[in-house]
Amino acid sequence: SSDRLAAKFGVSRKDQDEFTVLSHTRAAAAHAAGHYKDEIIPVDGNITENGIKGDTNMEKVSKLKPAFVKPHGTHTAANSSFLTDGASAALIMSEGRALQ
Q: Which of 13, 5, 9 is nearest to 71 (CA)?
């Protein structure tokens, strides 16, 4: 998990939170400046980036509780991706085929 990797490589909660704030601040500035406007596809005319929290700060992110390893983990909602990848599979067949 991310908490184990952070411990293994000596990445503190403070390090992660500082990077989180810097990353969101830079992303908000880049979006506002239009640096990647050609990469955004409007949805219903909207080009808002709902994953960027440009108003975040150390006070806000440091208050969040760990997501997995409680109470002393380092992985929080702020320093993780707001989107996750997932996968699923379904196998559909008749009962007769399944019994073969």
A: 13
Cα gap 32→91, rounded to integer Å: 46
pLDDT at res. 35:
93
CA distance 100 to 97: 5
Q: Return phi, psi of residue 61, to 5°.
A: -70, -30
For residues 31-41, one letter each, b for 16 or more C-beta atoms within 10 angstroms of the residue's C-beta and e for the rest, the string is beeeeeeeeee
pLDDT of 14-63, one tens digit each? 999 999 999 999 999 999 999 988 888 888 988 888 889 989 999 999 99
Reading the block at residue 17, the tokens are 């939170």
Evaluate whether 2 touches 24 at the Cβ level (below 8 Å): no
Side-chain half-sphere CA neighbours of 47 within 13 A: 11
